[in-house]
């Protein structure tokens, strides 16, 4: 049975491993993304800890089956006049390849929706590349596609 839990400091290695796997797949499928997959393990761990410290607006979730981590979601909380209050952004959502196609994604998104309601969110938003299976998945579970472009600019450090 699929369960989720909010990550804490002990989950760092699992989170890093799953995020690296997700990045490898995304970068192989699309050259759009920056070179975040080139981060060292220390840099990745530092990002995780930074996210945990921002827990008022960043949430890391692990999905488990039989206490085995099989996926994750990186969530952000924000505010929008358009949604009349708080909103949740699903920034990253990933299941290991062998765990897909079994209904886990749908159940996990239902869990995220319930969690968002508990936090008082009025809307959930996410982005999915139109050419990827992810966009078809989100539409199949009731998310509407909009014509808003996702624009990004990487800032120099």
Explain this structure.
- By secondary structure, this protein is of the alpha+beta class.
- It is built from 4 helices and 5 strands; from the N terminus they run βααβββαβα.
- It has a single domain, classed as Gcn5-related N-acetyltransferase (GNAT) (Aminopeptidase, 3-Layer(aba) Sandwich).
- A 5-stranded mixed beta sheet has the order 1-2-3-4-5, with helices on both faces.
- The longest helix has 18 residues.
Distance between the termini: 43 Å
Q: Average pLDDT value?
A: 87
Strand order of the largest sheet: 1-2-3-4-5
- What is the second-level CATH architecture? 3-Layer(aba) Sandwich
The total count of strands amounts to 5
CATH superfamily label: Gcn5-related N-acetyltransferase (GNAT)
**Most strands sheet:** 5 strands, mixed
Architecture blueprint of SSEs:
Blueprint: E1 2-6, H1 12-29, H2 41-53, E2 58-65, E3 68-80, E4 85-95, H3 104-118, E5 123-126, H4 133-140
Parallel strand pairs: 4-5
Antiparallel strand pairs: 1-2, 2-3, 3-4
Helix pairs in contact: 1-2
Question: What's the quick description here?
Answer:
This protein has 157 residues and is an alpha+beta fold. Helices cover 34% and strands 26% of the residues.
Which properties best describe this structure?
5 strands; 157 residues; 4 helices; Aminopeptidase; 34% helix; alpha+beta; five-stranded mixed β-sheet
């Amino acid at each position: 049975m699929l369960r989720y839990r909010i990550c804490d400091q002990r989950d760092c290695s699992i989170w890093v491993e799953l995020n690296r796997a997700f990045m490898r797949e995304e970068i192989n499928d699309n050259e759009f993304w920056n070179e975040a997959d080139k981060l060292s393990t220390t840099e990745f761990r530092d990002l995780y800890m930074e996210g945990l410290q921002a827990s008022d607006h960043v949430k890391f979730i692990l999905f488990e089956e039989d206490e085995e981590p099989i996926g994750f979601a990186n969530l952000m909380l924000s505010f929008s006049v358009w949604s009349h209050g708080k909103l949740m952004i699903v920034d990253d959502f990933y299941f290991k390849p062998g765990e897909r196609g079994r209904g886990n994604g749908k159940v996990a998104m239902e869990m995220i929706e319930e969690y968002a309601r508990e936090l008082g969110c009025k809307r959930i938003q996410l982005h999915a590349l139109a050419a990827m299976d992810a966009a078809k998945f989100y539409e199949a579970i009731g998310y509407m596609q909009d014509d808003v472009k996702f624009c990004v600019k990487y800032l120099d450090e």
